[in-house]
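Worked problem 6 (solution included).
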Amino acid sequence: MSDISDPGRAGRGDRKRAQKLIDAAYAAGQLTAADRAFRTERVDSAHTKGDLAVLVRDLVRAGGTAAAAGAAVRPPTTPSPPTDPTSGRSTASLGSAIPPDQLKAMAKGGSASTIRLGESMRTSMTGANVKRIRRVVLIALVGFLLLCGLGIAGIVAAIFTSVDNAGDPAETPVSSVNLQTADGWSQLVAAIEKETGTSEVYDVVVYPEYASINAVADEGAMRYVYRNGSFQLFNNPVTPARGDPIDLADIDPELVAGLPDQTAERQGMPEYDSAYLIVNTITGEPAIMVYVQQQGRLSRWSIYDFEGKVIGGTPG
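Solution. The predicted structure is:
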């Protein structure tokens, strides 16, 4: 895949290779459905090879040399549908295998197997069988009525329980907060430390609503998604760690909060629609990449060090 600063125009083949990397990462559990949809949308709107490289740079690092070389991802093959076992037979051979009365019924829309099944059912409906069926139906009806009675009793009990507990204080859920604000960033870092025992990660992608974290684990890394105050594990077992971990506690929350607007102003996009931040070591040192998009077409990014100094990105 090309360098993120490559100004060359993105062609159809470049977009296909980027999409295959995104699909492969999603199939491997490295991306959420929302993350995959977000990146797919931006593959379609990318203008340059550098735009595409931004979308898959962390996937290329996680995928090793094969992904970096743009190796094609082979979709799972779909087995051919079973062929009709009667295909190729002549009308004469079918006629010799099926009695004339069944052939007449088949001409009206039935099949030989259906007709034989119906005859078997009529034969089995003797007097003893009918009594047995009635007995089974009666037992099932009684069981259903008992279940209905238990269900009504449970509903009544739940109503009285809810009335008794009406005055008890309810547990307050964690409110959804924009993770690209100072408060949201502080909440994210604290949650990562509580969940994993450290504020260090190998990389993190932060959207306003959620974050994808490649967290430090014993003898490797584990991918989590953090949303609405809770974590969801996306790969198990532990995957090999790549590079040195980055301590998110070293990043000033106020710096994070100002970077999207700062990037939009630097790139001449004051009316940008969306933004996301990536913290990784793609430049060889810990850095923050901020990617902004406007009107679903124009996309630009800037790279900053932890002091807020611009160290790369599209020309401003």
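Discussion: The chain is about 45% helix and 15% strand.
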